[in-house]
Design a protein that fits this description.
With about 575 residues, the chain is mostly beta strands. It has 3 domains: about 160 residues, no CATH class; about 210 residues, Jelly Rolls, CATH 2.60.120.200; about 200 residues, Jelly Rolls, CATH 2.60.120.200. It contains 2 helices and 43 strands. The strands form 8 sheets. Strands 13, 15, 16, 19, 24, 25, 26 and 28 form an 8-stranded antiparallel β-sheet that branches. β40 and β41 form a beta hairpin. The two termini are about 40 Å apart.
Length: about 575
């Protein structure tokens, strides 16, 4: 992580591990005049090429950095650059530094989760201020005061419960627990070689939240038509577990549910090429037909040596599996993970298993991302939220309140009076530009609408008249319209039945200044190519930002703008909450 010149960062419960730099600052690199605070952070197993390069924390002499209740240990060749002058207190560091009650001793971290072992000297050794005490026990282990590192402090409740992670490549073993034949090879995760009687598995090292919902996406490749296949597994037995080879596919473990990608015909399946969702609750799982919650063979051929993409979404008691076609699920089944598995505060371990028998094939995972969905996470990055509860106030806490021009309060989709705004298509709009603030390039905008208009109407538009830059979401020619400009305005019309005078949830996820993913009623509709730019510009609901045209005719409700990219699962959650 690099901190730019004159920039300031404040990090809590942040883990830096397995990072490397060609020159210096493998963990975090403060450039000239950069400042920051590191509180209850853990920096371990980072490296830099140069000696005395600050493998964990690189500082110039003019940086002002405060480190509190943190662990900086086992970085190579050093932890903090010797010439630096950080303010360090109540921390465990690789060598002696001036400050209050620092220690220079092995923090005794668990190998994969980086939590403190029961005998760790870092327990009850952090900042003694009562406001810094551990809130949750566990993951905190001491009751007297703050524990050093990521599992201590007032923000520690989610320290060991990851919500999002991405493996764009598998070059670093950090946060992976490999079992059996699994190995990292040439930047990929190889679960088995094409050798007989193997079983391999890989678990993400931290428990993840699965109770309310999650979305995971991965690419896999199977090199030949052999056996037996692989599975994505959710389990709460532990990190050491791995099942049996052959048709058990490595997932015959207790307290698990497996999405099996089977490449070998086993009775009673007529097609060797199928997926099945297998569980026996907290009892030992297995490939038996009676353990299947649902299966299908209407999928692409898996063992063709090609790269295939899988998306698995769990939300509101439904588990859906997509194979290559990301718009239509190959299999959807009802299941309640909270009742099927013995979850720990809604958390479990996730990962993969695979196996061969006398028939063989190589099972590779090339890329893997995972994101948990909890209702409270939908507040993360919420820049503006106008629910129109009797007014146009912003309830995100960011004070982006709207000024109403002509639009009138009306009933929402639940027939609650004065809970949505009607726009007459002539001169009604809401101006949120006076307090709008900057909208980043990567952002999400969404709303509920009801309209039967034939012309052009803007739902939510942000732009700059002088610079010809901005982006918008609207309706045109009975179609959903997504557009923007980085110099010349351009838009794409999406042929969906949006003007049928029924309530619809519409949203656009704008990414990287050149594309947008479009959703309607919780479903992914299309990815469109548009050039756009954003900034601290005029924002209107119901009209064009440049002049008095393109007025929306209909009802708008529940306007949200996020300063981040929302996942498909999060979009679906917002839709389900609205229905």
């Amino acid at each position: 992580m690099a901190v730019a010149e004159n920039a300031r960062v404040a990090l809590w419960e942040t883990l830096f591990t397995g990072n490397s730099a060609f020159d210096n600052g493998g963990g975090i690199h403060f450039t000239s005049k950069g400042t920051g605070t590191l509180t209850n952070c853990t920096l371990t197993l980072n490296s830099s090429i140069y000696w005395d390069a600050g493998a964990a924390v690189y500082l110039e002499t003019d940086n002002t950095v405060n480190i509190d209740s943190s662990i900086i240990w086992q970085n190579s060749p050093d932890g903090i650059r010797r010439e630096a002058n950080p303010n360090i207190d109540y921390s465990c560091v690789q060598r002696a530094w001036p400050g209050m009650d620092n220690i220079v001793t092995d923090p005794q971290l668990e190998l994969n989760t980086f939590e403190l072992q029961d005998s760790s000297p870092c327990i009850d050794a952090g900042n003694p201020n009562p406001n810094m005490n551990d809130i949750c026990l566990p993951p905190g282990k001491g009751e007297a005061r703050n524990d050093m590192g990521i599992t201590g402090g007032p923000e520690n409740c989610d320290a060991l419960s990851q919500r999002r992670f991405d493996f764009y490549t598998f070059s670093d073993p950090s946060f992976l627990v490999l079992r059996g034949s699994a190995e990292l090879k040439d930047g990929l995760l190889r679960l088995t070689e094409a050798q007989p009687s193997l079983a391999g598995g890989a678990w993400y090292a931290l428990p993840v939240y699965v109770q309310e919902g999650f979305e995971t996406v991965f690419d896999f490749q199977i090199d030949q038509d052999g056996a037996e296949g692989f599975a994505f597994v959710i389990q709460n037995t532990g990190l050491a577990v791995l099942g049996t080879h052959a048709y058990f596919v490595g997932y015959d473990i207790p307290d698990s549910i497996a999405i099996e990608f089977d490449t070998h015909r086993t009775w009673p399946y007529e097609n060797a090429n199928h997926i099945s969702i297998q569980t026996q609750g907290v009892e030992q799982n297995g490939p038996q037909h009676e353990y299947s919650l649902g299966s299908t063979d209407s999928i692409p051929f898996l063992s063709d040596g090609q790269i295939h993409t899988v998306k698995i979404i769990y939300l509101f008691g439904r588990l859906s599996v997509f194979v290559d076609n990301m718009q239509e699920a190959a299999l959807t089944i009802p299941v309640d993970l909270e009742n099927v598995l013995s979850l720990t505060d809604g958390h479990a371990f996730v990962g993969f298993t695979a196996a061969t028998s006398h028939l063989m094939e190589t099972h590779d995972i090339l890329r893997w991302s995972f994101g948990s969905i909890a209702l409270h996470t939908l507040k993360d990055g919420l820049a503006a939220y106008l629910p129109f509860n009797g007014n146009a106030n912003d309830e995100s806490g960011n004070n982006h309140h709207g000024i109403v021009y002509g639009a009138t309060l009306t009933a929402d989709k639940y027939l609650n009076m004065n809970d949505a705004y009607f726009f007459d298509g002539v001169d009604d709009y809401i101006d949120v530009s006076s307090t709008s603030g900057s909208i980043p390039v990567n952002h999400t905008r969404c709303a509920w609408i009801k309209t039967d208009m034939d012309g052009i109407g803007q739902i939510l538009e942000t732009g700059n008249y002088e610079n010809n830059r901005g982006c918008y979401l609207g309706v045109k020619e009975n179609k959903l319209m997504v557009g923007g400009s980085s110099s010349i305005w351009n838009n794409v019309l999406i042929d969906v039945d949006i003007t049928d005078n029924n309530w619809h949830f519409v949203g656009a996820v704008y990414e990287y200044g050149n594309r947008a993913k479009v959703y309607m009623d919780g479903e992914f509709i299309s990815e469109v190519i548009i050039e756009y730019d954003t900034g601290d510009w005029t924002t209107y609901i119901g009209k064009n930002h440049k002049r008095d045209i393109q007025y929306f005719n209909g009802v708008i409700d529940q306007v949200r703008v996020y300063d981040r990219i929302l996942s498909e699962c999060e979009i679906q959650t917002l839709f389900q909450l609205g229905t």
